[in-house]
# Entry
Amino acid sequence: MTDQDQILGRLARSAFRSRFRLGRKQRRYADARGHETVAAHARDFIAARLAPVEPPNDGRQTPMRGHPVFIAQHATACCCRSCLQKWHGIPRGRALDAAQQAQIVDLLMAWIDREMGFRPPPPPARPAE
# Structure
């Protein structure tokens, strides 16, 4: 089990976090745009709304509906700096670095992929030694 699987499992046990689901509109949007476009949107949203030291409107910057990434942010506790600190141990008061942003986007996209019914490809086979 990966760290990501453990985090998603822990979030699934939260009554609040587990109630988030992609609706028909969000599924159609994700289907029409494709994984890479939605991931690009996620990178943009995280960089603009979550990565700064003091994000504008922190705690209220992520809508509860609309874009699939917004739903995923609430489901994965990546919606504000308080939730990032509480659920993921990422402290407030400093900007998110590129690795942290990538980790968040990967988690968001894993949640979206699960909601869409996609399964990740198996890991590449190890070369024979």
